[in-house]
Write a structure and sequence with these properties.
203 residues; alpha/beta; Rossmann fold; 36% helix; 16% strand
Amino acid sequence: MTIPSMFAREDPQALEIWQKSTVAIAGAGGLGSVVAVSLARVGIGRLIIADFDVIEPTNLNRQQYFQDQVGMAKVLALQENLHRINPHSQYLMHHALVTEDNIVDLFGEADIMVEAFDRADQKEMLIEAWQLLFPDKPIIAASGLAGWGKTDLLHVHQSGNLYVCGDEETELERNHTPLAPRVGIVANMQANIVLELLMEIHK
């Protein structure tokens, strides 16, 4: 196997595992776009990403998009950006609302699910449906990431195949919104767990 030069400093055994893996990301906003960029940079072989939203100017304070992409579907803009970062991986994008009825069709081939929604009801729906449909496949969720500071409160809580990253307390308020630093930390906690779990799944 010829290793692309961008991965030359990575552990070849780990890279081989990551390149043959498929990771699902539900949501392409602050969490999902950051997770996707991090996983693309380390060489995950295939990312399946679904989101129904379009880019707004207010997204740019924490999401992996650019001014000239405002108005584009997030999944299409993200696909463009991921290809620029790492053209060696596959990116299967779905401009669609994720529901209980289409989870299998959208994400059934994935080894791991990353939950990257904003709304609590969407998070709950995805977690419950994924655990019912794919009880042996991990899902990595996020809860409590708005505001700034309090890095020491961020942690990972595991319950079976469910992993929750964040402080699990902070709620969205008018003057306590998600910002790039804390969102980025939690998203990269999610991405880091993905790598760790893939090593266990494919060992």
